[in-house]
Specification:
Length: about 210
């Protein structure tokens, strides 16, 4: 904004501005007319330091900004009352210590949040696995229930078919080969037993 204002002043052949947007700051408004230039330069310096700290810090904190603001307040008081402000080195050392404490607390909170997230994810996965196992068990039980029902139906159908064949007199034709052999053998054995009984009776009668 200052270069724009300067180019505008050159075009209109007016006085070039001494300040830019920073002139609207409350710190400069509170300063006396003779100290406005000095406080504006001091404020610009502190703003550049704060921007660099925000750019290169891994965890952003408001500690350095608060300390730099305190320095500006102390400089204003120095211009008005003559009280000497603290040195920049002392203030920055305090700021570093406080910032490290704040960063440690922030990291602890982040670690706690991450642990909670991992626990939630594990619980969700466990719940999903349990639900899948329940579904699989239900499906297996349903399949096991369906198979014996099918077998029972087949047996009932076979019995019904045999009954129908017996009624129609077609049992021998419809029976399979193995069953036919078994029935023929059973009939032969019965006939042989009857013949043996008859022979025994005849022998007894002769005696």
């Amino acid at each position: 904004t200052a270069p724009l204002a300067g180019s505008r002043a050159l075009k209109t052949r007016g006085n070039t501005p001494k300040y830019g947007l920073i002139f609207h700051s409350t710190f400069i408004g509170r300063a006396a007319a003779k100290n406005k230039g000095r406080i504006s330069r001091y404020l610009a310096n502190k703003c550049t330091i704060a921007s660099r700290i925000d750019c290169f810090s891994e965890v952003p904190t408001s500690v350095f900004g608060d300390k730099l603001r305190e320095q500006v307040e102390e400089r204003l008081a120095f211009y008005e009352t003559g009280e000497p402000p603290r040195k920049n080195l002392e203030v920055m050392k305090e700021a570093v210590v406080e910032a490290n404490e704040v960063v440690a607390e922030v990291k602890r909170k982040q670690e706690k949040k991450e642990k909670k997230k991992k626990r939630r994810e594990k619980r969700q996965l466990g719940a999903l696995a349990a639900a899948a196992e329940v579904e699989n068990s239900v499906l297996e039980t349903e399949e096991n229930d369906i198979e014996p029902k099918k077998k029972k139906k087949k047996k009932q159908q076979e019995l019904e078919a045999e009954v129908e064949l017996e009624e129609n007199g077609l049992e021998e034709e419809a029976l399979p080969k193995k069953k036919r052999k078994l029935t023929v053998e059973a009939d032969q054995e019965e006939e042989e037993e009857e013949e043996k009984k008859k022979k025994k009776k005849k022998k007894k009668e002769k005696e």
